[in-house]
Every structure is written in C-alpha cells, then in structure tokens.
Amino acid sequence: MNMNMNMNYSEYSNTVDDYDDNHKVLVFRLLRCTLALATALSELRLCQSLTFLKLSHAFYYSDNHNNNPPTSSYSQQSSSISSIPFWTLFLLLTSAGMFHAGPAYLPSSTVMLLWMNSASHQLQSYKHNNIVKNNTANTDDTSYINHIHWAVLWGLLAVLGTGWPFSAILFIPLGIHSLFRVKNPISLLTKVFILSILLQSIVMLVDYHYYGTLLSPTLRIFTYNASSNSDNLYGVEPLSYYIKNILLNWNVVAILGILSLPILCLTHFILSPPSCNYSSKQTFIQDMRLWILLPMYLWLILVLPRPHKEERFLFPIYPILAIGTSIVLDELLDRILCHSHHYHQRKKLILGLLILSPMALLSISRAATLSTGYTSPLQLYNYIHKDIIIQTSKQDKQDKQNSTLAKKQPIVICTGGEWYRFPSSFHLPTNAKLAFLKSSFTGQLPKPFHTHGSRIESLPIQIKLFNDRNQDINNVYETIENCSYVVELYSPHQFGTLSNSCTPPDITTSTTTSIPECITYMNEDEGGLSTTWTNIMEYDFLDAQKTSTLHRILYIPGKRRRVEYLKYAVFRRREYSVSNQ
After folding, report:
1. pTM for the structure as a whole
2. Residue 481's Cα: distance from chain center in Å?
3. What is the DSSP string of 57-110?
4. Biggest CA pair distance of the chain
5. Which among 169, 151, 569, 113 has a CA at the least distance from the CA of 376?
6. Burial class (CB in 10 A: 0-12, 13-18, 19+), 145
C-alpha cells in the first residue's frame, strides 16, 4: 500500500486547498461506487448469458446424435425457461462475498469482473453458433467470431492489464474450448498473439511513463512469487483459513459450488438421465457447464497449496460458486420434478428460490455484521479528515487576525499496530501525513510516494526504504512528540468507560498488562496522557475475542445481543486544538 504523500515536512504545501480537501473523500467513495457498479453490470451480463447453458447442452446433444440441431423455436424456449440465470443472480445479489469483493480496489476483484465478461461472451457465442448451424455450414459467422474475440480480449486484459499474471489459469479452459469450436484455430491463435503484443505494448508504455524505464511489473511479480518461499515472508496460514473465509462469505453455497462438478459428473455418468433433460455421456465434454466450472478448480489447485493466504485470493472464483450451486440445484430439481404431472418450469424456478432463500438470509446477515462491526476505521478517518480541515480553517482565521505569517508544519496522524486499517490517502487533507509509531509488528511498513513518484530518479532514496525480505526498517518511525493525532484501538473494559467530556482513558486503572502501544506512548509524552491528549471521537469495533461465535459471524437483531465492542478512537493533542474566535 503506497500513499500519495510527500516524504518530509519541507515538501508539504503551506496552504490547504479547500476544494480538493473537501472532495477527496467523495472521490474515494465515487471510485468504490464505480467499481461496485461495474461489478453489478458484469453480474447482470453474465446471468443474462447463462440462459445459453442448457442451449449449449441441447445443441451438442442433437448435433452429435441426430445430426439435426435444435430449431430456433426450441432454442428460444430453452433459454427463456432456464432457472439457472435467476438463481445465480439471486445468489450474487445477496452474497456477503460479492458485497465485500465488488467495490474493492484490488487486482483480484478486477480479475473477477473481467472473467465474468469473458465468460458472458463465450456463452453468448452459442446463440450465434446455433443460428449458423441452422442456416449455413460456415461456423465462423461474424457475430459468433466477434463474441469469441471479445472473450479473448477480456481474458488478456485480466492477465496483462492488472499486474496479476496468475489469473491466466482462469481463462485456460474457456480458451481451449474456443479453439475446438472455431473452424480455423490457427487464425484465432494468431489474433491472440497479435492482440497480446498490442496490449503488452500499451501496458509497458504506461509503466514507462510512471517508472521512467522499460520494464514489466507483470513479469517481475510472476518471477518473485514463482521463486521458492518468497510469499512466506508475508504470513503463513493453514488451509483452514480459506475454509473458514469461504464459508463465512458463502455458507452452504460454497459447499454446493465446490461440489458442483463432481455432482454434475455423477448425474451424467452414473445416474440415469431424466427424460425431460438432455444428457449424454458422449456429449459431456462439449457441455458448456463443464468449461464454466473448470476455472474454479484450477484456481483452487493454484492457491490452496501456497503458504501465504489472503481472503482476496478467492475473489476470482466467487461468481463460479454461485453458478455451480445453481447448476446443482437445476440438476437435482429436474430429476425430482420431471416425472411429476405438475412439473412446470415456473414452479421449478420458485421452488429453487425458496430453497436458496435461507442461504441468502445468512449472507445478508453476514454482510450486516461486516457493516456494523468493522467499518469504524473508515468512519474514524473520515472524521479526522473533517476535523483537520476545521482546525486548519480556524488557525488560518486566527493567523489573519493576528497578522501571523509563520510557516506551518504538516499535521501528523500517528498509529501503531492499527496501520493496516488505514483506508487510503484520500482521507488525508493535503496538509496532513500518516506516520507510524513503533509497534509489535516487525514487517515492512508502507511508505509515501517520493517527489519523483516511482521513477528511476527516486531509486537512491527508495532503495533505502524498501527490501524484498519484508524486514523492518527503523528509520520510518515517528516519535510521539511530533504527532498531532493518534489512532488506537482499546478496550473500554480495560480502562473504564469514557466520560461525556471525552477525556482519555486512565491508564492507571488498567487491570491488565496488555496496554495498547499508542496509549503507552501518549502516557509517556510530556505532560502525560490526560493532560496532553483529548479523545475527540471513537466508534464501536466488534471484539472478536469476547463476542460469541454466532454473533460474531451473523447479525442477529435484538436488544440482548451477545456482542462486545472495542473502541476505535482518535486522540488529538490539546495544543493543536484551536478555539472558536
């Protein structure tokens, strides 16, 4: 995480641009909203294209057995009555995982978005391929080929444009499937090669503008992560870490989604097919459902063995979990209902939604817990942003009245072990910077951009501040004497309840030796904690250790909720406060 701030005090502007500062947080929110909107549109596009899943299966069945492809009327009927798109959209809209991943400004979220668009074009190509089969022997119809080209383009953007080359494995199954479907695979491969060179050239030109030299960050990140144990430096987690995270975000959907391909194989090769559903051992390899699900398993094979695990690494397969669950439900309900005299696709759709509703309610409850229990850092830094602007405005007004033209030092917001919850530099006015107090964290901390940004001119300075071993560098820490604000997480049970006057917690009343590091620094500051610092705002932050597992995972309304909260607080140095004139 880099922050677009200057390196030292002398490089800061002495004035605050009110327009820029008042709109920085708004820009941050608009960015997140734009990402969420792009994800939502991609979900809609994917679900609309899922109507062709059964069409592809029926088409290949007829083509291989009767040499008589489905008629256009059958195709329209098959796509219109498909329940899979509705169920998938229902799961995506209510998923806690998508709620978290959609607006995230991360390569993994972008790859997820791009995969949905690529898969959408692959599925839409079946519609045009079917039309061509009915009307002419030439399968390289313009519309059909255009969809294949768009699918390839979205995949190349994910691999070359996000700096995440590992995502290529997600597009291998659909790529192979396309090669078998087109009339001239050599021509398609040639176009892919040319398009790859073009995209990589554009990416390298952009990188050259910012780095000042020709290089490929995509190649570098691949080389670094491919080397032995390089990612171990950033934390190692057991396999259970992924299991817990995916169950928290997707509950039963995660289980059904991961088991979808084995269940699909079981229904095709072992169980007898229902008379009302097309199914054939000979056509299973051509079933698009197989190729849509395969990327999830390849991705899990890639990420599960890696010692370093993060929740975001699972984002790319989130849509496939929803699709897989819908496919499983479609197969099971077809086998249960197809022999019934009352079988009707609309009844099947409603029944499926009823079955999925408890899973959706669990996901919504989880999303509510994330929103109510863990958003206090975002709220707190938003408050700090406003408070700095207010204090600066008061100080400017006071200086004008006193005809004071003293050079202003930047405002320093300090934090210790809570550094990783800092949302972004969008939450800092132009006359403020984030600084770190020494904490128990022993890894490498993020640094602000230098005046030269990431260009080669910054190397003599940046090379002293970074390393590829995740080792701590002592010269990045600030002292408490230079801090204007301090952000810390503390327990009200540890220090007692704060009074209405927002006085700082009394460190002498602590009943435990585990005192937050920043509070210790403030207590050791000249004048002590209660004299020098004022607690100006705090928000509730869910205490995972003291809250019951059920209430920690799900939001359960009611007055007698067994939930304990910590306090996410900001302290302001008293001498920095400016009274109203």
Report:
1. 0.86
2. 37
3. HHHHHHHHHTS-PPPHHHHHHHHHT-SHHHHHHHHHHH-HHHHHHTT--SHHHH
4. 94
5. 569
6. buried
In the sheet that holds 411-415, the strands lie side by side as: 432-436, 411-415, 485-490, 565-573, 533-542
Here the tokens at position 388 are 């700095």
At 138, the amino acid letter reads N
Q: Which two tokens stand for residue 187?
A: 């021509």
Nearest to 536 by CA among 387, 377, 382: 387
Separation between Cα atoms, residue 403 and residue 554, nearest integer Å: 57
Query: What is the C-alpha to C-alpha distance for residues 484 and 533, in angstroms, rounded to an integer?
Result: 9
Alpha-carbon distance of 471 to 297, in angstroms, equals: 34
15 contacts: CB under 8 Å, gap ≥ 6: 431
Structure-block tokens of residue 38: 């792009």
Q: Give the span between the Cα atoms of 204 and 182, in whole angstroms.
A: 31
**Tell me, what DSSP letter sits at residue 468?**
T
List, as one string, the DSSP characters of 31-67: HHHHHHHHHHHHHHHHHHHGGGHHHHHHHHHHHHHTS
326 with 87: CB under 8 angstroms?
yes
Nearest-CA neighbor of 44 among 81, 4, 88? 88
Task: Give CA–CA dist 372/386, Å, rounded.
Answer: 22
Measured distance CA(290)–CA(276) in Å, rounded: 20
What is the Cα gyration radius of the chain? 28
Q: At which residue do the structure tokens 């005299």 appear?
A: 341
Give the Cα separation of 120 and 100 in Å (integer).
22
Q: Rounded to an integer, what distance in angstroms lies between the CA atom of residue 502 and that of residue 15? A: 30
* pLDDT by 10s per residue, the chain, length 581: 333 333 333 333 334 445 466 788 899 999 999 999 999 999 999 999 998 876 555 544 444 444 444 444 334 444 346 899 999 999 999 999 999 999 999 999 999 999 999 999 999 887 766 544 554 444 446 788 888 999 999 999 999 999 899 999 999 998 898 888 888 889 999 999 999 999 999 999 998 888 888 888 888 888 887 776 667 778 889 999 999 999 999 999 999 999 999 998 888 777 755 545 444 444 666 688 889 999 999 999 999 998 889 999 999 999 999 999 999 999 888 888 776 655 677 888 999 999 999 999 999 999 999 998 999 999 999 999 999 988 888 877 876 766 555 556 789 999 999 999 999 989 998 889 999 999 888 888 888 777 777 777 777 777 777 777 787 876 678 899 999 999 999 988 776 544 434 455 555 555 555 788 899 899 888 877 878 899 999 999 999 888 888 888 888 877 556 788 999 999 999 877 655 44
Number of H helices, E strands in the chain: 22, 5
Cβ pair 275, 338 in contact under 8 A: yes
CA atoms of 182 and 309, how far apart (whole Å): 38
DSSP-assigned beta bridge partners for residue 534: 572
Q: Give me the phi and psi of 416, to 5 degrees please.
A: -115, -105
3-state DSSP assignment of residue 442: coil
DSSP of 534-564: EEEEEEEEE-TTTS-HHHHHS---STT----
The beta strands (E) that lie in 297-453 are given as 411-415, 432-436
CA dist., res. 359 & res. 101, Å (int):
18
236 membership: H or E segment, kind and range: none
